[in-house]
Amino acid sequence: MAARWTTAVLDPNITGALAVARSPEGFLVDANGALFPRDWLKRQGLDVLCEHGIGHFDGQPVVLLELRSASEVAGCSWRGLRAFMLEGDFDTYKVLGYAAQIGTWAREHRFCGSCGRAMTQIHWERAMYCQPCDLRSYPRISPSMIVLVTRGDDILLARSPRFVTGVYSTLAGFAEPGESAEECLVREVHEEVAVQVKNIQYVGSQCWPFPHSMMLGFHAEYAGGEIVMQPDEIEDAKWFSVHDLPPLPAGRSIARYLIDLYVAQRLGRDIPAFNP
Predict the structure, then answer these.
(1) Known binder of ligand: residue 233?
(2) 125 is in an annotated binding site
(3) pLDDT tens digit string along 149-170?
(4) Which positions are annotated as binding a divalent metal cation 3 (predicted)?
(5) pTM confidence score
(6) 161 labeled binding residue
């Protein structure tokens, strides 16, 4: 079965295109969703910062309108990307997740980081270009690891002050320059909860467009140490039995998949599917 959504570098002026409009307030939506005829959107008086052709949805070209600010549009409202991940159609979320990353990149690379001059959009590749410096800037992807640490029937979960109240999740952190994913995992686990791990196994990955992460998911076994929480980063951390778990992350996240996968394996249940 062909994918409904495929990315591509398109001329933003392509005819017959659909479009999504993104502002600092989120994506424009109406009763039918977040995809609109581009020609109609262009007539709504939106404060457009830039446009990028980003791919095809059900065979139709899709253009991103990145806006300076939100405007009132009759019959429409603005909705954040996380709401689409939690509640919306997952195929549409994939479109908007990609659009959010391209929009963030386009907004943050309007000027050359070397000389400060305005950069120009290259239409045949996903890049912004500074001719005096001969410098190309491509969309940023920040690799990070996320890991479920286990000890038999117990799993180590923690919560950040930024989490939804009551929710516990796996440990995660960004890779440093010169660091492998495994080295990042060992360092982050020790920094956040002061325990050691062993038998690290890669499980899978997920694009995480908040704003531009690539989450590399792992499972690791506990190797020693007592939990000591990192100040200002970890609000609480403890071992939970697979038979008695706290509120967990959203079902479409790789954090939840790592947990669900281990619980299924431990309890002899069907292995859950994962759609990253």
Answers:
(1) yes
(2) yes
(3) 999 999 999 999 989 899 999 9
(4) 188, 192, 233
(5) 0.92
(6) no
